[in-house]
Amino acid sequence: MPGPMRGRGAKFSKESLKMIPKLLKYLFHYYKFSMAIVIFCIVITAVAGASNGLFLERIIDDVITPGLKNGFDSVKDTLIFWMIVMISVYSVGVLAGLVYTQIMAYVGQGFLNHLRKDMFSKMESLPIKYFDRNAHGDIMSRYTNDVDAIRQFITQTLLQVINTAITIVYLMFMMIFFSIWLALISFAGVFVILFIIKNIGSQSAKFFMQQQISTGKVEGYIEEMMNGQKVIKVFNHEEEAKKDFVKCNDALFNDAKKANYYGNILGPILNNFGNLIYIVIAAVGFVLSYFSAYNLSLEGLITGSTVITIGIVASFLGMSKQFSQSIGQVSQQISMVALAMAGAKRVFDLLNEEPEKDDGYVTLVHAKRTEDGTLTESTERTGIWAWKHPHQDGSLTYTLLKGDIVLEDVDFGYYPEKVVLHDVSIYARPGQKIAFVGATGAGKTTITNLINRFYDIADGKIRYDGININKIRKNDLRRSLGIVLQDTNLFTGTVMENIRYGRLDATDEEVYEAAKIANAYDFITRLPEGFQTMLTHDGANLSQGQRQLLSIARAACADAPVMILDEATSSIDTRTEALVQKGTDQLMKGRTVFVIAHRLSTVQNSDCIMVLDHGRIIERGTHQDLIAAKGTYYELYTGAFELE
Ligand SMILES: Nc1ncnc2c1ncn2[C@@H]1O[C@H](COP(=O)(O)OP(=O)(O)OP(=O)(O)O)[C@@H](O)[C@H]1O
Ligand SMILES: [Mg+2]
């Protein structure tokens, strides 16, 4: 492994270590009480399980040895006593084990339920930017693959680790209690074992992290290829797609292979080392008990006052075996922990993402006019909307929502280093229709992305009815905008539900009305089940134009005072377009509308047409003005200059 990779590996495992307390904190946050019981029960189970050595020693030294010497009648009571103790201890152990596995079955699933819920609500709170920068399949993989790794940790590995840790500590105490010298031999062995684990374990942690990342990539790739099936087929890219997949998949295979290689060699190495310790203890134990039995002087020297009996040597062999086995289990568990922590890191990365910031405090409310003409808030739909503006002195003002949108010297770039819009100024008076035309990539969609605050501007100001839009709560801002996005997106559900998405409390009649305005009513009623027709993923069972009509209907249903139509009619035939235009003109009455269109016919009746070029407005005015000016718009219109 070359140097740089090694450095990265060290960082991975350190970072994954940090995940453990995070994950536990999260778990305890939801299940403090249950986890306390679980840990208590695990302690009991572990202690019961590790008490074999103690019992074996008592049976040999208190029952068998004196029994052989003095006859078994003399030790009958002692035997019965130890039998009862053993049965009680093991029964309690089994019972405790039953209790905690039952609790964990519930806690584990409940925890995942919380985790997925938190992930999803975090995802919903993230800015559009996050989705620009992360492959969707990779985000998906955090819900499936990474959450599953965490599940395994919580429901199995964690319990095993606690159990093993308690067993190890308990055995250490027992061994020291029985014979410090034999114990020291065992511990010396453990030091070597820990050294091996540290080296191999961190290697495997590194590759488990890598494996999780590769899994995300594979899933991201699959999802992209599924979405792009048609394009792949059209360009005969099946073979290339397969080749690229094989590359991703092989990378995953390699990482998984290495992760498991390091994870799996630990077990055998440690087992054999454990056997070695066993042999050494047997030999030393024999010597010590020999000295002990014949009262040779060496005994006092090395064992202090403790007498080494056969029972002690026998139970010690058992304990030291169990001890090194437990350490060996730790090594396997480390792989599992590493895998889970790699998953946890990706989940927490998502959970720790900065949510979309919203400092807005101006809200949108239904309003009515009192007799003297002032605005007040109303609990009913009045058709009048007002911005509710709380002030520092505790007073409230209401501003009528008119749809007056002003952009002043706005600069913006998706990335700080690349400015997309330069000094854009736009004045849209209430009820005006403002059109944007310009070549692909000129920045038309970007302007609308700023008005609805998908992205925040770098410099300049955007005012809505005189209020800086940064002060308006995003939900309310977006509620006041009816938006038809450039790429239509429909959800699984009926046509009715999809249109009602615009405004959930719309009545059936209002939905029909919206469909009529968008000129979608006719085609919908011709669908097999009319408004109840189920749309599959993204409306795949509709034509592109029909999808666009539905998304216009959806925006119409929202009944918002400001409309943004981004290329809304681009996939519609000219005859339908004329109809839609009539409908939208009706929809636009009294509303401020921003239209983006490639077809100049759609924008001719606009109050103002902005011609954009490379993020700058190079011309503005009515159709007549711009034609008279004989500039770019004129060239576009007369066909002397192509848009694309
Ligand atoms: N999410 C994004 N992240 C980074 N850059 C982007 C993003 N969206 C658009 N851009 C860039 O911003 C510029 C303007 O894009 P925009 O989508 O506003 O163009 P447009 O005028 O709407 O074009 P079209 O007519 O093709 O829809 C382009 O150069 C594009 O590369
Ligand atoms: Mg666009």
Explained architecture:
A hairpin with a 5-residue loop joins β1 and β2 (375-377). The longest helix is centred in the middle third of the chain and has 56 residues, at 238-293. The chain is elongated and about 125 Å long. With 644 residues, it is an alpha/beta fold. The model is unreliable at 1-12 (pLDDT under 50). The strands form four sheets. The chain has a six-stranded mixed β-sheet, with helices on both faces. The protein has a four-stranded antiparallel β-sheet with strand order 2-1-3-4. The protein is 63% helix and 13% strand. It folds into three domains: 3-351, ABC transporter transmembrane region fold (Up-down Bundle), CATH 1.20.1560.10; 363-400, no CATH class; 487-559, 3-Layer(aba) Sandwich (Rossmann fold), CATH 3.40.50. The chain has 19 helices and 16 strands. Residues 444-445, 486, 566 line the site of magnesium ion.
SSE blueprint and pairings:
Layout: H1 3-49, H2 52-70, H3 76-125, H4 128-133, H5 136-178, H6 180-227, H7 229-234, H8 238-293, H9 297-303, H10 310-351, E1 363-369, E2 375-377, E3 385-390, E4 396-400, E5 405-412, E6 421-428, E7 433-438, H11 444-451, E8 459-464, E9 467-468, H12 474-479, E10 481-484, E11 493-494, H13 495-500, H14 508-517, H15 521-526, E12 534-535, H16 544-558, E13 562-566, H17 574-588, E14 592-596, E15 608-613, E16 616-621, H18 623-629, H19 632-638
Parallel strand pairs: 7-14, 7-15, 10-13, 13-14
Antiparallel strand pairs: 1-2, 1-3, 3-4, 5-6, 5-8, 8-9, 11-12, 15-16
Helix pairs in contact: 1-3, 1-5, 1-6, 1-10, 2-3, 2-10, 3-5, 5-6, 5-10, 6-8, 6-10, 8-10, 14-16, 18-19
The structure holds adenosine-5'-triphosphate (ATP) and magnesium ion.
